[in-house]
Amino acid sequence: MIPPEFCFLSNLQSLELYNNQFNSSIPSELGRCTSLTFLNFGNNSLTGVLPPSLSNHNQLVTLAVHDNFLFGEISSNLIANWTNLNILFLYGNNLSGSIPPENNLTGIIPPEIGNMTSLEKFDFSTNQLHGALPDTISRLENLNYIAVFTNKLSGELPADLGANILLINIGFQENSFSGVLPPKLCGGLSLQRFTANGNNFTGPLPDCLRNCTEVQRVRLEGNHFSGDISKAFGVHPSLVYIDLDENEFSGQLSPMWGECKNLTYLHIAENRISGEIPVELGSLAQLHDLSLSSNELKGRIPTELGNLRPKMLY
C-alpha cells in the first residue's frame, strides 16, 4: 500500500511512485502535503476513488494516475483549486461522469479549454468523451501532445489545428471524426507519432506530412483518405511503422520508400494503388511485414524482395 505517513512530509514537492505494484487506495492523508507540485501514481493497481483531500493541492502542476483501477465520478470540488495544473493523466481507469468545468473542461470538451494557455499535454484517451474538438484548442500555443483515442468524439477537426503549435504526438484513433485533416496539422514539422485509424476521415493528407522527417509511427488505416500516394509522403528516415490499409489512396508507389531505412512495417493494402512495385523496397533491411494486397498493381514482383526473407509479404 501507499504509506499514509507521507502526510508528515509537509515540504514534499514531488512524489513519484509510478510503474510499481501498489494495490491500495490513494491515502486521503496526502491532502496534508500542500506543497506538492508533481504527483505520479501511474501504472499501478490502485483502487478506490480520487480522495477529496487532493483538492488541497493548489500548487499542483502535474497529476498522473493513469493505468490503474480507480473508479467513481470526478468531483467539481476536487479540481477547483488546481489552477496551476499543466498535465493531467486520467486514462486507463474506470472513472465516470463529466469532467468538471472548474478547470475549463467538461465531458464534451467545451470552448473554454482554449483558456488553459500553459497546457502542454492533453490526454483523455480510453474514456467516454463525446462531441467535437472545439476550435479554441488551437489557441494552446504550448501544446505538443494531444491524445483522445478510444472515445466517442465526432465531427470535423478545427480547421487551423496545428497552425500555431508544434505537435509531436497526435492520437485521434478509434473515434467517429470525419472531414478532412487540417492543412497545417503538422505545420511545425516536429511530428513523431500520428494515429488516426478507425475514423471517417476523408480527402488528401496535409502537404506538411511529406516534410516531417522525424515521424516514427503513422496509423491511418480504416478511413476514407484519398489522393496521390506518391505526393503524400517523402523520405522519412526515422519511420518505423506505417499502416494505410483500407483507404482510397491512388497513384503509384514512389521509389523513395526504399530510403526509409528503419521501416519494419509497411501496409498499404485495400487502396487504389497502380503501377509496379518499386524494386527499392528490397533494400529495406529492417522490413518484416509488407502488405500491398487488394490494389491495382501490375507488372512483375521484383526479385529484390527476396532479400527480405524470412519476412511476411502479401
UniProtKB/TrEMBL annotation:
Task: Identify the GO cellular component terms for this protein.
Answer: plasma membrane
Q: Which domain of life is it from?
A: Eukaryota
- Annotated Gene Ontology MF terms? kinase activity
Checking SUPFAM superfamilies in the record gives: RNI-like
Q: Which UniProt keywords apply?
A: Cell membrane, Glycoprotein, Kinase, Leucine-rich repeat, Membrane, Receptor, Repeat, Signal, Transferase
As for subcellular location, the record says: Cell membrane
The main location class comes to: membrane
Spell out the InterPro entries in the cross-references.
Answer: Leu-rich_rpt (IPR001611), Leu-rich_rpt_typical-subtyp (IPR003591), LRR-RLK (IPR052592), LRR_dom_sf (IPR032675)
Q: Protein name, please?
A: Leucine-rich repeat receptor-like protein kinase family protein
The source organism is Thalictrum thalictroides (Rue-anemone)
